[in-house]
Amino acid sequence: DTAVSQTPKYLVTQMGNDKSIKCEQNLGHDTMYWYKQDSKKFLKIMFSYNNKELIINETVPNRFSPKSPDKAHLNLHINSLELGDSAVYFCASSQLAQGFHNEQFFGPGTRLTVL
Amino acid sequence: DAKTTQPTSMDCAEGRAANLPCNHSTISGNEYVYWYRQIHSQGPQYIIHGLKNNETNEMASLIITEDRKSSTLILPHATLRDTAVYYCIVREYGNKLVFGAGTILRVKS
Prior knowledge:
With 115 residues, chain A is mainly beta. In chain A, 0% of the residues lie in helices and 55% in strands.
């Protein structure tokens, strides 16, 4: 069974469109994340949710809106897509135990291409 | 910004130990050193973490200098499947991982 899954794996769309990427984890974790990896391969955190509450919100355009319907899901909706949004988006999850020695498990990534 | 410095790339012969260095001279007393790796086209994978003592698990060993300003990740018997980008990360506030450029490790037969 896949621990952290994302759909779709590939997404090709036109500028200006709205799209969503879905993430699900079956590890029973209470915290989920979205990361963006751009063409230069730098991996940067975008958002983090703990028990459906936003706990990390980096400087991300408000066209990006994460939604967590329950602890096992964290979806990413992107409005008015721009060329610069082209990247690989990774979802991750962890258990936010006491302290922070919690391994993050990453999904396989969604490659978004905006034309 | 990442608080670590790593070589851009390294080569290692298959079956030999791969020693990946990391400098973190500004690490504070309660910050841990984490290592993740990213195999091509996959999500990052946790390897190991440590504070000041050497650590070992089924994947690797982590050697941290006494002054904690640098560390070395050791893959004892590298295989072709260990070819990946290896990230050394100093854990910042809360739950945030800050990834740098990492080291591209190429294991060659």
